[in-house]
Amino acid sequence: MKPRPIIIDTDPSPDDAVTFLVALASPAELEVLAVTTVAGNVPLPLTSKNALKALELAGRTETRVFAGASAPLMRRLVTAEHVHGRTGFDGYDLPDPVTPLAPGFAPEVIVDLVMCREPGEVTLCCLAPLTNIALALAKEPRLAGHLREIVLMGGSFSEGGNVTPAAEFNIYVDPEAAAKVLDCGAPITMIPLDCTHQALNTQARLDKLRAVGTPLTEAFYHLLKFNKMFDEQKYGWEGGPLHDPTVVAYLLAPHLFSGRKANIVVECASSLTLGMTVVDWWSVTERKPNVQLLRNIDAHGYFDLVIDRLSRL
Ligand code: BDR
Ligand code: CA
Asked: What integer is the mean pLDDT of 58-66?
């Protein structure tokens, strides 16, 4: 079978970078058409720089990185330096990248890369606020109908929020963009906190990663350990959630996940619950299911997969 073409839209902190590296380590299954960056965890110049740093570390500089939106559609940017540090990549010093960004504005590049393929070919893997995707959908109304699928890490069902009591970070930063994406009509799979909070990066799992013994796994050992420290203090858990690689893990090994289709709407008006993903799990409304919501993950299988793929780079 031909590898599945994907575009990875991302705001690199380390879990984002692990995601596109796992994808690049899986050429039999996945063809990475581009990495597109957006403002999120840190401002756009830093998310773009971190993407390039990670690709240089992996020796995969042929992968093109396109920068996109530097701010949400309608709101001021909210960032997460308190989690990932000032650079978004605190915990390990990687050299400044020498590879330049590819020319082009990410939302336009997404449109071009999808529309030049057959309908139903390209999957968007979304690891960040959905600004670039909303802009792409606005630029090309046929885009949604041309996609194979959108798989996104974001939102929350019964787990509560990680940035407000009600909202998960990626949705909270640009709720209007998220609302537009969830409403676009393309097949959508959403991996919320309910799932990623089961996928804890424990010290034992980090040690397993480090034991691979490559410069890449050594760097990510330290980068992920920095994140883990913040999460452990915040949640009181042994380990921090490894959020974004669930997106690519789902493409590679869907049997690790379970969930069901439901209607999901994003709250964009209430100041108290802004960015909440309101899930009609029990079909108590007439609203049609628009999203496949993944609620459970086999965490052991997930970490085995991620570590195995990273060891191939
Ligand atoms: C999301 O927020 C970011 O900090 C992570 O990379 C992930 O995409 C989790 O809420
Ligand atoms: Ca992210």
From this structure: 98
